[in-house]
Structure formats: C-alpha cells, structure tokens
Amino acid sequence: MSNVIEAVTEIVQPIVERNQFELADIEFIKEGKNWFLRVYIDKPEGIDLEDCALVSEQISERMDGISPDPIPQAYFLEVSSPGAERPLKKEEDYINAVGEYIHVSLYEPIDDEKTYEGILKEVNDETLTLTIRVKTRVKDIEINRKIVAKARRAIQF
Questions:
Q1: 2-80 — its CATH code?
Q2: Model-level pTM greater than 0.90?
Q3: CATH 2.30.30.180 is held by the domain 91-153
C-alpha cells in the first residue's frame, strides 16, 4: 500500500504545485468493497470546490495516461481540503500549528493517558510541548515525538 502512495505522490505532487497548492496528504484505503484514492490539498486562504475539481481533472487525466497503471484495481478518486482537523504529518505542519489547539494520540501512555488535547506551545526534533487543561488547572506536558501515533488540529469546545 505504501508503494501505491509513493507512486501516486510522484504523479500528484507536480500537479498540485503547478496549481500553487500544497499537497497535505494522500490516502489509499478500502471501505467495504470499494477502494478510494483521497488526495488532500490546501492553500493559505483555503480550498474551494473549483480548486478540487481542477486538481481532480488533472490527476485523472494524468493517471489515465500512465502504463502500467500504478493502481491496478478500480478505485474512486476524491480530491478535497484536509478540513479543520487537518492531520499533522510533515515537520512544516507541526511548525505551522504552534499556538493552535491540537489532538495527539500516543503509542504509549503518559500519566495513564494515550490521548491529549491542548495548545501546541513548542515543537522541536525530539518533543512536542502542549499546554493542557486538567480540570481547573493548566499545565505544560512534554511528549516525546517517537511515541506520537497521530496528531491533528482540533476544534476546541
């Protein structure tokens, strides 16, 4: 599956950049009987339906012209914005999220918890520092990046 993602990334990246968007993420997943290739694009002012349609058309045209096909099975192509709860995957994503409210899932618990939400205060090569609320108290927690399973922007309620 990661080979499909790598191959598709090489095809999609130039298309996205040519249109002056950022390639936020690519997923290739099976849901029920169907396969979906999901391409998430972004730009500072946000993505609209026309942006998605433009990129989708160009990706479809390019993918249809490649032989052998990097994706041998039938699939549905979806191009969209990563949304308000955008995943943090690249270093740049983390840096851009400093000062924002995020959700972090961990491989190993810290203080018996495997998920945290809070303001991303600081990021470096080895750790994330989150400002979290525990009941009525606010405190900073340092998380080793090696134990971060997933991180994404979150909506604070």
A1: 3.30.300.70
A2: no
A3: yes
CA distance 80 to 49: 8
Strands (DSSP E) contained in the chain are 22-31, 34-42, 76-80, 101-110, 113-123, 127-134, 137-144, 148-153
Residue ranges, CATH 3.30.300.70, the chain: 2-80
Beta strand residue intervals within 32-112, DSSP E: 34-42, 76-80, 101-110
- Ranges in the chain annotated CATH 2.30.30.180: 91-153
27-80 tens-digit pLDDT = 999 999 999 999 999 998 999 999 999 999 999 999 988 888 889 899 999 999
Contact 105, 151 (CB under 8 A): yes
